Amino acid sequence: MSNFITVEGLAKLKEELAEIKLKLKEVALKIKEAREFGDLSENAEYHEAKNEQSFLVGREQEIEFKIKNAEIIETKACDKSVVTIGCTVEILDDGEKVIYQIVGSEEADPLNGRISIDSPVGRAVVGAKKGDNVKVTTPAGVSEFKIVDIR
The whole model's pTM is what? Predict the structure, then answer.
């Protein structure tokens, strides 16, 4: 399973992984200190630290998997003749121009114009050309819009 991601997105994942590794060291120290208090069955600090450690280890594994399976999106490689992942597409939706960059699910941020290739709109526009009318089925129903520009 590929994880489509931009170079910037991969850098952010690596940064988060480094932060988690530091936090895991801190949590290990908390656990060691909490053990020194004695009876672990009634030691809230110990149980809290173990829960935090468990969460961080899970997130660490998730990020390592995403990095290992990363497939870099070359945003500069968009050939502008057809919408592909990494392209920015301008659509006309009910008379309103909307601009989206097509990205992998890790970097999707619809409020900031970054939609996942796995989203209904992302799936619908990939493969479309400038001037194409595209139909999209969303939870709200079927929408149709026109591809105005690809960059």
Answer: 0.76
